[in-house]
Amino acid sequence: MRALVTGITGFVGSHLAEYLLSQGVEVWGSYRPQSRTIYVDHIVSQLHLVECDLRNAASVTKMVERGKPERIFHLAAQTFVPASFDHPAESFTTNVVSQINLLEAVLRVCPDARTLVSGSSEEYGRVLPEELPVKETNPLRPLSPYAVSKVAQDLLGYQYHQSHGLHIVRTRAFNHEGPRRAEAFALSSFAKQIAEIELRGHEPTIMVGNLDAKRDFLDVRDVVRAYGLLLELGVPGEVYNVASGRMWRIGDALDHLLTLSKVRVEVRQDPARLRPSDVQLLQGDAHKLHEATSWSPSIPFEDTLHSLLDYWRQEIKAPGNFHA
Question: Distance (Å, rounded) from C-alpha 85 to C-alpha 101?
Fold first, then answer.
């Protein structure tokens, strides 16, 4: 089996590459010309990496012609919500045009390939308390330019399945964390700040945004396993939540990280870390995914937080040497 992972050098892409290799899959991956490959350096000899600007249709077609994949995991995107408020047009163009280019290339080169479109729980946006846990049938009320772009990607996947018969499975993954998570994201930022206080003697102050928001958190390794199962067992054209079914308050996750450390800190809110509009409650219902694949989360989120903190401790001691 030959699989193509767009955005393979990113957080989720690197974990997906590890998972696919463990399943005996031949793994190809796209990366941007300016991106760093540090997250896959430990497995790079086992990968077929292709430099590709997904916003360029000719570049995408050339990549697909080279790889002729049987399975495609489309993960590449601008994924940082606050950045989408600063650069809404760029975020939308990057996410939507890139996917159109990919699906057009698949249509021309390998129409029998199976494609997974990676969406986000941010698509649900403003969720009412009585709607929890959120099912796939819940209204989409996106609250950020990023979320709107993911809705567009989601619906494009449906449209290309309906219009052209492509085998496309759509996902809406809820928050996922783990080693290699970029420090721009809240829990990874907290973990890095704690590690810097422990190991570099930084001022014992943790800068935070909105601690009262509640999210459905998963370990990234459980998420990529769900992706692999869905591309084999999911129904083409359908959309699946990837969720734990459990909500964590952001502040409680920070408190748990602090219990894993001996440092005493002051928690201080940074207005720059607050979003113009924020999703307050997100809890997913993954029954549809479980029924299709028998998937369920296997890694307790407390263990995920521990591995995230250990990742940053190791990165500060010896950058680039922690891959678990």
Answer: 24
